[in-house]
Amino acid sequence: MGMNRREFLKRTATIAGTAVLGSSTHTSADQGPVPESDRYGVLVDTTVCIGCRKCEWACNEWNKNPNQPIKAFEDKSVFNSIRRPHAQTFTVVNRFINPKDSKPIYVKKQCMHCEEPGCKAACFVDAFKKTEKGAVIYNADVCVGCRYCMVACPFDIPAYEYYEPLNPRITKCTFCFDRIGKEGGVPACVKICPTETLRFGKRKDLINLAHERIRNNPDKYTDHVYGEHEVGGTCWLYLSAIPFDQIGFRTDIGEKSIPERSKGFLFMTKVFEVVAAWPLVFAAFHAISKIREKRSAQDAHSTKEGKHEQKT
Amino acid sequence: MTFPEYIKSNFTISNAIAAIILIVSIPVMIYRFIYGLGPSTNLSDTNPWGIWIGVDVLCGIALAAGGLVIGTAYHLFGMKQYRHFVKPAILTSLLGYLFSVFGLLFDLGRYYRLPYPMVVSFGFSSIMFLIAWHFALYIMILFTEWSPSLFEWLDLKKFRDFFHRLAIWATVFGVVIAGGHQSALGALFLVAPGKLHPLWYSELLPIYFLLSAIIAGLTMVIFESSLTHKAFKRQLEHLNPAEFDRLTLGLAKAASAALFTYFFLKLFGLAHSNNWKYLFTPYGYWFLFEILGLVFLPAFLFAYSVRYKKITMARWTAFIVVIGIVLNRINTSVIAFNWNAPERYYPHWMEVVITVGIITMEVIAFRWIVNRMAILYDHPDYDSSH
Fold first, then answer.
1. What's the structural domain count of chain A?
2. Does any domain span residue B380?
3. Residue of chain B nearest A279, judged by CA positions
4. Residue B270 is assigned to a structural domain of this protein
5. A217 and A290 fall within a common domain
6. pLDDT, average across residues A266-289
7. How many CB atoms lie within 10 A of CB B174?
8. Is position B105 within any domain?
9. Do B108 and A144 touch (CB under 8 A)?
10. How confident is the model at residue A284 (pLDDT cuts 50, 70, 90)?
11. Which residue from A minimizes the CA distance to B176?
């Protein structure tokens, strides 16, 4: 019957090797940690924003999304409900009311461009890439449309083109990676912002700036820079006058990044599949040899009987 | 039977129901493939996953764990007395996985790119990637385990004998692969701590899903064999009903132990995360219903039915546990998922119609194969000893 020892070892090694392969190889898109100094970000000071929504218009223009004339963005009735990005609407501005002075607070919402993106870890075809400057970008050429990235994003940012029947894509802010890649380039929203709400710069510098602003104006800001540590840190950072959960931010997502939450399981599974495979294989071998033993014992017994019958 | 006789014999009530379901379902399936997810589902940007993931994939795969469980018992633990259950369990598993993947096609935005994670682009850090590869490998393994029945029917002795010898190896690697992806389906939700209700979210999710898959395998074998023994009486004339009952109670014993283990693991998880306060909320009561009514209670019922040889109680308890598994998967993916989101999801009628259609097709496929191939009995022309 069948397999000899060499064949058995070859086959087991192949399967074990393939199982381990996934944990040790990296795709070309995974550059590993980029030095802090090369990371860019945007600091959003929500105490300054006037809710003009020109950033929404500029974003639609640059990304060739469906747009309206800039005057249409002056319509304040959109603020009556809290909005989120949808297909081909990469950013929205929402209004919250400051309970202390009943004045409006405007908050721009878009992809946070996480340092350790959950969408990238979730994607089974590696459709997301964290660029050197910090942008997390999406590649529609490999996307299968499983929408797991939407499940994984703690900020609920990726949107889907559900009404595109044959070629639906995930859509989200691109950090204008094609603009910031050039010398002196800034995202379209930052460029058009008429106030000092949006500031583009090195992430490290923006964090220092943010803390400096808090130090110099302790009554103006709540002492927290949102995005500094949340889910491992994000490139888009926020300052606020009031606690962040009152302006639509989740404050229960913790500092552990999303990829970290699944890494443990992936590692354990590979260990299991390499370690557990062997005892099971030996158990199978053992079971087979027991059957063989039994059969040969039966054969020997019946041969003996046969010989005995022949004799008599 | 002549062909006209065959056609006539198919005019039964169950076939009429199946026909009605398919007459509605198939056009809806075509509609979904042409017009996309938008008009055919209630999926949204806030709720990207619905019953096609929650039921078709998660429940389908959990309930297809019978092949793994019985195959392991028979080939690896040497429990040869369960011989009769092996082939039906393998077939159920194979069809379960195949139709789950078929169901997945409806959910994928670009269904025509299904092979991409296998051949085009690899997301190694994704749990979904592990699942995709494992499904493909495991379907091959299940096909290897089922193919002797196919080749017996086609009378291809050489192929049949070759695959028959591979059975034990397929089982070994099946345990490794199935253990991997049954737990990975639970691990899928590890990335969403803020979205899954604290009573269901746990770092132990992979273990919960793996153990409940084993439970699903055991109870599906009890439940399904109860049905097939009624539906395919003619093929089972040689079978000793007392022996069949005794073996069923053996499965019930294993299920009872597994259910108690699962219950205590859940308690441990609850204690570890210190989420007791959530028990006294509406979601808490729903959680208690799932854990006490559909896990703890059946564990006792199984134990009782084994002790006092109450076979009917064991069969009904198996049915309750199957419902419990389905509920757990739906809770984790739909009901307790996004529990605090501004906008909640409920399925579109087309989503339900397609899901019911898929299940109907699966049952029809099972029946077609069992009516023609030696699944419930050993083929007389072949030596089936292992």
1. 2
2. no
3. B172
4. yes
5. no
6. 82
7. 27
8. yes
9. yes
10. confident
11. A273
> Is the distance from CB of A163 to CB of B39 less than 8 angstroms?
yes
Whether residue A280 and residue B179 make contact (CB cut-off 8 A), yes or no, is: no
Quick: pLDDT tens for A205-246.
999 999 999 999 999 999 999 999 999 999 999 999 999 999
pLDDT of B198 above 70: yes
First-to-final CA distance of chain A: 35
Strands A198-202 and A128-130: unpaired
Question: What DSSP line would sit under B159-175, residue for residue?
Answer: HHHHHHHHHHHHHHHHH
Do residue A272 and residue A233 come from a single domain? no
CA distance B117 to A209: 43
Asked whether residue A68 falls in the same domain as residue A108, the answer is yes
Task: Tell me if B144 sits within 8 A of B93, measured CB to CB.
Answer: no
Number of domains in chain B: 1
Polymer length in residues for chain A: 312
User: Average per-residue pLDDT in chain B?
Assistant: 94
Query: Is the minimum CB–CB distance between A251 and chain B shorter than 8 Å?
Result: no
ipTM confidence: 0.94
Q: Which positions in chain A touch B342 (Cβ < 8 Å)?
A: 82
- Report how many Cβ contacts below 8 Å link chain A to chain B: 197
Asked whether residue A68 falls in the same domain as residue A169, the answer is yes
Given a cut of 80, whether residue B386 has pLDDT beyond it is no
C-alpha to C-alpha distance for A69 and B196, rounded to whole angstroms: 40
- Rounded to a whole number of angstroms, the distance from the CA of A132 to the nearest CA of chain B is 19
Answer yes or no: are the C-beta atoms of A151 and B192 closer than 8 Å: yes
Residue of B124, B197, B204, B275 for testing the chain A interface, max A β-carbons within 10 Å: B124
Q: What is the per-residue pLDDT across A110-168, written as a single tens digit (0 to 9) for each?
A: 999 999 999 999 999 999 999 999 999 999 999 999 999 999 999 999 999 999 999 99
Print the domain residue range for B59: 13-372
CB contact under 8 A, A287 and B183: no
Determine the average pLDDT of the residues in B25-46: 97
Q: Residue A65: give its domain's CATH number.
A: 3.30.70.20
A5: left (phi over 0), alpha (psi -120 to 50) or beta: alpha
The tokens describing A301, both together, are 């017994």
A160/B48 Cβ within 8 A? yes
The helix or strand, by DSSP H or E, that contains position A160, with its residue range, turns out to be: strand A159-160
Q: Do residue A191 and residue A274 come from a single domain?
A: no
**Contact: B108, A146; criterion CB under 8 Å:** yes
Residues of A in contact with B168 (CB under 8 A): 284, 287-288
Minimum-distance CB partner of A262 among B76, B165, B190:
B190
Provide the token pair at B115: 């092979």
Phi then psi for residue A226, to 5 deg, are -70, 130
User: What's the confidence (pLDDT) of residue A14?
Assistant: 52
Q: Is the pLDDT assigned to residue A2 strictly greater than 60?
A: no
Judge if A232 and A272 occupy the same domain. no
Do residues A157 and A270 share a domain?
Answer: no
- At B385 the three-state DSSP class reads coil
Q: Which of residues 144-163 of A touch B (CB under 8 A)?
A: 144-148, 150-152, 154, 156, 158-163
Domain at B345, CATH number = 1.20.1630.10
A-chain residues within 8 Å CB-CB of B46? 84, 156
Does the pLDDT value for residue A81 go beyond 90?
Answer: yes
Query: What 8-state DSSP symbol labels residue A141?
Result: T
pLDDT band with cut points at 50, 70 and 90 for residue A12:
low
**Which domain range does residue A287 map to?**
5-23+265-311
**Which helix (H) or strand (E) segment is A198 a member of?**
strand A198-202
Shared-domain flag, residues A158 and A276: no
